[in-house]
Amino acid sequence: MSVNSKDFFKKNVPHRLEREKRVSEMAREKIQIKKIDNTTARQVTFSKRRRGLFKKAEELAVLCDSDVGLVVFSSTGKCFEYSNCGMQQILERHHLQSKNLEKLQQPAPSLELQLVEDVNYTKLGQEVAEKSSLLRRYRGENLEGMGIEDLQQLEKCLEAGLSRIIETKGGKIMREICELENKGMRLMEENEVLRQQVARIPNVYIPHRANSENRMCEDGQSSESVTNLCISGGASQDYESSDISLRLGLPYSG
Predict the structure, then answer these.
(1) Is 69 among the domain residues?
(2) Is 242 helix (H, G, I), strand (E, B) or coil?
(3) Is residue 182 part of a domain?
(4) What end-to-end distance do the CA atoms of the chain give, in Å?
(5) Scanning 32, 113, 171, 238, which has its CA 20 to 30 A from the CA of 154?
(6) Cβ neighbours, 10 Å, residue 85
(7) Cα pseudo-dihedral 145, 151, 157, 160, rounded to 10
(8) pLDDT tens digits along 124-171
(9) Residues facing 80 on adjacent strands
């Protein structure tokens, strides 16, 4: 039994087109833009969208040769940034541009004064751009467009700056060493003064006195005789010319 091809297409093609249409409509259905309640899903979505946003910013900078600066803060407070020419330079240009806009919005007292201010701001903007470019070169960035002479000049400047840094650091180290040496000398002088003061203190304590008392008590002598001996010994040291006689022995009874 043969089937007419025309009848087959009439029956099946509309159904297939209808299915493709429904699939296309589902694919084009927009996601509802509202806060994601689930924390994990919100963080995953933020990470994906952030990478896509940074990729678009990079493409814009490359394709259109424009300076792009992008700063994003997550819900947890973490900062993410992208810049193709340095975020500091972007912020400086934005700050300068904001000042220029403020000046333009304010009524100028005269056209000549406004022109002078515009020229000054333009010069300042150029100087900021030049200084920023030079600073990046000092950091070793954006060196591809420089010639050999410019690179040699930059090398000399860096060597001179490094030499001054080393010289300054060496001077500070030497000053600290001198201060430590002076402090050590002062401590030695104070130690010597204390040693001399201790040496001038009189020796009041007689070291042999206790030994003499112990030996005499062991020999059976009276404590009175021992006391007389100690007094006599001390007096003989202080007064060598004294004529004091001492008689040792047991006390006389009778």
Answers:
(1) yes
(2) coil
(3) no
(4) 173
(5) 171
(6) 19
(7) 150
(8) 888 888 888 888 877 777 787 788 888 888 888 888 888 999 999 999
(9) 72
For residues 36 and 45, is the Cβ–Cβ distance under 8 A? yes
Is residue 47 within 8 A of residue 34, CB to CB? The reply is: no
How much is the pLDDT for 203?
64
What pLDDT score does 206 carry?
Answer: 46
**89 and 126 in contact (C-beta within 8 Å)?**
no
Instruction: Judge residue 82's burial from the number of C-beta atoms within 10 Å of its C-beta, 0-12 exposed, 13-18 middle, 19 or more buried.
Output: middle
| Of 249, 253, 254, residue with least CA distance to 224 | 249
User: Tokens 């997550």 belong to which residue?
Assistant: 74
Q: What is the pLDDT of residue 226?
A: 44
Looking at the DSSP bridge assignments, the partners of residue 69 are 83
Question: Is 36's pLDDT higher than 70?
Answer: yes
Q: Is residue 76 part of a domain?
A: yes
Cα–Cα distances in Å, from 113 out to 97, 110, 118? 19, 5, 9
- The verdict on residue 44 lying in a domain is yes
pLDDT in tens, 69-100: 999 999 888 999 999 888 888 888 888 888 77
Task: Report the CATH number at residue 56.
Answer: 3.40.1810.10
Host H or E run for residue 166 = helix 148-199
Three-state secondary-structure class, residue 81: strand
Number of domains in the chain: 1
